Amino acid sequence: MQKIDIIGKRKWWYIISLVIIIPGIICMFTRGFNLGIDFTGGTIIDLKFDKPVSIMDVRDVLKTYKLDNSTIQLAGEDSSAAVSQSVMIRTVDLEENDRKAVMASLKDSLGNYNVLREEKVGSTMGSELMMQALWATLLSWLLIVLYISYRFEFRFGIAAVLALVHDILIVLSVFSLMQKQVDSSFVAALMTIVGYSVNDTIVIFDRIRENLKLHFRKGGNIDELANTSIYQTLTRSIYTVCTVLFTTLALYYFGGDTTKDFAFALLIGFTCGAYSSIFIASPLWVTFRGWAEAKRARQKAATAK
Amino acid sequence: MEKYWRDKELRKDNFIKLLVVILAIVGIFSFYISPLAYSIRQGLDLQGGTHVVLEAVDTPEAKVNEDAMQRVVKIIEKRVNELGLTEPLIQREGERRIIVELPGIKDPDKAIQILGKTAMLEFQDEAGNTVMNGTDLKDAQAQIDQSNQNLVSLEFTAEGSEKFADLTSKNIGKKIAILLDKEVLTAPNVKEAITGGKAVITGSRTLEEAQNLAILLRSGSLPVKVNIIETRTVGPTLGQDSKDKSEFAFTIGIGAVILFMVLFYRLPGLVADISLMAYVIMLLFLLKMLDATLTLPGVAGIILSIGMAVDANVLIFEHFKEEYRFGKTLRMSMDAGFKRAFTTILDSHMTTILASGVLFLFGTGTVKGFAITLGLGTVLSLFTATTFTQYMLKLLFGANLFTHPTIYGASRPTKVVDNNAEN
């Protein structure tokens, strides 16, 4: 098998990732995210009517409450149909009594229904959740860097964390570009991805560490050593990502509607996590090591003069 | 030890031990997996029900403090119990919040309404002076009287009875008022002094309304104002649907992993599968013991931790194959493989344990649920890989049942190795 010089071509991998991340970041700032009510606050009512209804029917009822600018979506097997039994209504944060009144009117005008789901989130909850998750995540990154610095070396720690930031940025980019809904389970998905990415990266780093000890006492070609380490762990990298992808794919295809977006985030994240461990983390470590060596060489040259 | 390996005979003792361990795990797994999985409390996103978050707020009359919050929790618990639901969950979160989970509830609107009410009962004389309140009540029951009127009958405490007798005797021919949260429930004319320690509140439009009022009065009033800041209701249809589907998805996913391990790692893969079964059972058992709630993020934590458990085995086997390729015997390769894989497994698991520890300590709700399953799962994965897998593989090699390397998925690059090459 012709082996690709992964480390030697590292600039290409950085470029490939940036090709996704840069438009993603631009999109995050221009179009932003399709935030769910977990973040914006609001009320969601998911109903299944006995008889099919159209968006116009529902909007007419909402108009009497000045809620006609709410989001109304038809769900069901045929998503392009003009009428459907399943309807999702998303409004601003409604008071308990207002919500009840709206639901009673819907029943009066459009017939009986089954309540599939009903959610109300106050507007302050979302930002709190986000801040809390953000702080907890940043703190966990700090600990990861510290642990890796202690067990390996600082450069490994930074490379591992950058690789996981890379994974998160890609998932965020995809969700912003596709305008998929971001809710609290998305936060859980991001944390799962972080967990996977670090785990995956460490296995390769561990191999590099081992090879450094065994074969690198007298110095040698660092690119070659990193490449060898990546190839030595490649089977394991592929097998492991396969096993997590099996379960996630199953959840994506066979799971309910509530788990779909969640499984989608995991699918992208796990794939990225496996990719970044090989194509981003190890090359970054080589890059950092190269910088350190260049610096040392410059200092040596300076003192020699 | 090396002697056993040279021996070509079947080592019965090891073989029997191995068989017992395998049968025990497979037996326990197939027998207990579904009752155990069902006995774990499922989040409302998976099983349907109502999730309510209440937040206490300061008012000019009453500031929120720890004592008040503890009383609020007690009263909310009483109200929930009065609703007669199975397995409700009431939890403090942070300083001022209370989470109430009501699985399988039929009338979420009623529950939501009852939970958030302050339910401050007051008895006022005509001049508007409050002379009695909810603490003077002993009991409250909804009733229908002979004229088909819905009412709530009140029974006072001894002290309350005196107060009420005093109030009615002083206000004969005048109006007294019974108020709930500053709204007049009823304002009867006092015809005579009532000394029996009993009274009724009329004016409920329906029996249900009377029942709700009775529940509120029985459980007492909240010492501080409480706002409902979040409610989530998943209907039984949707809940059942996502439960069935996640279950199916999970079975397929795990099935694929098990098949994958056998296909790629043969006999050791099978051993790994069996320790994976032990792992899943232990994880569920621990979650059950800790009375954890399994939500969707929790499921994500489990998926990831299963991935890591499999990864630990993959690491061991990959190292084993490599050592074998270097020319060691099967048995020695396995020992060396374990030793080398251990540091990797330790480091990769430790970082995950650290990260989930932080998320557990500083997170709430979603974040916490995830951190619990991931953290526990990772610790267990470390445990099963280093105990179960290792023990079973030792027995397997010790049993001398199979000595051909391909059964272990191992091969050497050059010539085909026959069994005698081991000597």
Give the helix/strand layout.
The complex is a heterodimer of chains A (305) and B (423).
Chain A: H1 10-30, E1 34-35, H2 37-40, E2 42-54, H3 55-63, E3 71-75, E4 83-91, H4 96-110, E5 113-121, H5 123-151, H6 154-177, E6 181-182, H7 184-215, H8 222-232, H9 234-254, H10 257-304
Parallel strand pairs in A: 1-6
Antiparallel strand pairs in A: 2-4, 2-5, 3-4
Helix pairs in contact in A: 1-6, 3-4, 5-6, 5-7, 6-7, 6-10, 7-8, 7-10, 8-10, 9-10
Chain B: H1 2-6, H2 12-39, E1 41-42, H3 44-47, E2 49-57, H4 66-82, E3 89-93, E4 97-103, H5 108-116, E5 121-124, E6 130-133, E7 137-144, E8 150-156, H6 158-170, E9 177-180, E10 183-186, E11 198-201, H7 207-219, E12 225-234, H8 236-289, E13 293-294, H9 296-325, H10 330-362, H11 365-398
Parallel strand pairs in B: 1-13
Antiparallel strand pairs in B: 2-4, 2-12, 3-4, 5-6, 5-9, 7-8, 8-11, 9-10
Helix pairs in contact in B: 2-8, 2-11, 4-7, 8-9, 8-11, 9-10, 9-11, 10-11
Describe the 3D structure:
The complex is a heterodimer of chains A (305) and B (423). Chain A is α+β, with helices and mostly antiparallel strands and 305 residues long. Chain A is 70% helix and 13% strand. In chain A, strand 3 and strand 4 form a beta hairpin. In chain A, helix 3 packs across helix 4 and helix 6 crosses helix 10. Chain A is elongated, with a radius of gyration of 25 Å. Chain B folds into two domains: 232 residues, Multidrug efflux transporter AcrB transmembrane fold; 186 residues, Gyrase A, domain 2 (2-Layer Sandwich). Chain B has a four-stranded antiparallel beta sheet with strand order 3-4-2-12. In chain B, strands 6-5-9-10 form a four-stranded antiparallel beta sheet, covered by helices on one side. Chain B has a three-stranded antiparallel beta sheet with strand order 7-8-11. The N terminus and C terminus of chain B are likely disordered. Helix content of chain B is 57%, strand content 17%. Chain B contains eleven helices and 13 strands. The two termini of chain B are 14 Å apart. Chains A and B meet through strand 5, helix 5, helix 7, helix 9 and helix 10 of A and helix 5, strand 12, helix 8, helix 9 and helix 10 of B. Strand 5 of chain A pairs antiparallel with strand 12 of chain B, so a sheet runs across the interface.
